Amino acid sequence: MPVLLTGLLALALYAFFQIADEVGEAEIEGLDTALLLAFRNPADISDPLGPPWFEEFVTEITSLGGYPILIALVVAVVGFLLVIRRFGLALYLSISLGAGTAISQLLKTLYDRPRPDLVDHLVTTHTASFPSGHATMSTVVYLTLAALIVRIVAQKRVRVYVLAVAVAISIAVGLSRIYLGVHWPSDVAAGWALGVAWACLSWLVASGLRAGRN
Asked: For 201-214, what is each residue's pLDDT tens digit?
């Protein structure tokens, strides 16, 4: 497992920096534009694909990657760990997710990429575009929490299910950001890559600490 996680970490970091390089040199604008407009009515790009109820549905999906939901979820899990007296794990989880948030915001500041201006934004945004904070943090939080569950569950089918749900939520949140017009697809892809890298690093560190105690 450590070898697999290390390989995945390296691959995710490579993907992030490759995307960042393409964005920095403006070599991905054509693909970004094509993919963004693929979510829009060709006759009226201000109109996202699907009926009005689907737009509302996607707006609810995107909230799963917003800070209010993620903070509430993490606080609930940390509280549970404190109640069962897993103080070290609660502290580690808080530090890991807090650091992931800080890195995501720092990268937004460093790259300072404008939000898409081709289409109307269907939700309000307040920060720069690259990388997508929703894609990054949903991937970080849901994969990290899934890793915690996987560590304490023996059945393989349960592990697969938990990881699959975490991945599915992360993908859905990222796609929702493109659909709502608030992120370029490359922002989301970079967010996914960064989130996977951070989740893998957190898992490796946690495994190392556990092995050290044993």
From this structure: 888 887 766 655 55
